[in-house]
């Protein structure tokens, strides 16, 4: 249980285009989803927290107009990188949290497999 | 403020050796959770363990074991009889009880040589 999928797993795009990344909780309803960015050989950096039906909360220094997050349902959140530039190239990871699992595991985030974005 | 320190940037051992990854945390919360995640070269984070602050019992799962000591604010992870497949980056993380955000350590890269 508690499987999170992320699509696409890898994307290469031209500078100036927008890229959408989907994060889905497959077998549970995620009340909260998180988006992280990870640079090579570094730890995860939280970009934003999104709750279903409400606006995402962005971390300091993360441009909300650049990284659009939509959490339209309890199983889907999307991150759109608008007008992507080479410096946006990174590994983007989503995670999902719920307090509704039958075997409630309290405060555990379940992670998607990540999306490697390369902007040329 | 909450903080997680993984002082070991990289560890390299020969297969079958035991290895311990250190994790030291700081928090003022009385209720908190500690985690270990494994990140193999593929990039996908694999959940290994969650421990809450009221449960100081050590845990063993196969070749993996965890030593939680509140007195030293440490949550160390030991792999016994390491294998090449254990090669990965391991992250220790902390979250409080009031929100679900994770505070991450810098990660320890573990290299197991055949």
User: What is the gyration radius of chain B calculated from CA atoms?
Assistant: 14 Å
Biggest sheet features of chain B: 6 strands, mixed
Work out the helix count of chain B: 0
**What is the average of the pLDDT values of chain A?**
90
The count of strands of chain A amounts to: 11
Helix amount of chain A? under 10%
Number of helices of chain A: 0
Beta-strand segment tally of chain B: 12
C-alpha Rg of chain A, in Å? 14 Å
Describe this structure in words.
The complex is a heterodimer of chains A (120) and B (114). Chain A has 120 residues and is mainly β. Chain A is built from no helices and eleven strands. In chain A, strands 2, 4, 5, 6, 9, 10 and 11 form a seven-stranded mixed sheet that branches. In chain A, strands 1-3-8-7 form a four-stranded antiparallel sheet, with no helix packed on it. The mean pLDDT of chain A is 90. Chain B has no helices and twelve strands. The model of chain B has no long low-confidence stretch (mean pLDDT 94). In chain B, strands 2, 5, 6, 10, 11 and 12 form a six-stranded mixed sheet that branches. A four-stranded antiparallel sheet of chain B has the order 3-9-8-7, with no helix packed on it. In chain B, a hairpin with a 2-residue loop joins strand 7 and strand 8. Chain B is mainly beta. At the A-B interface, strand 4, strand 5, strand 9 and strand 10 of A face strand 5 and strand 6 of B.
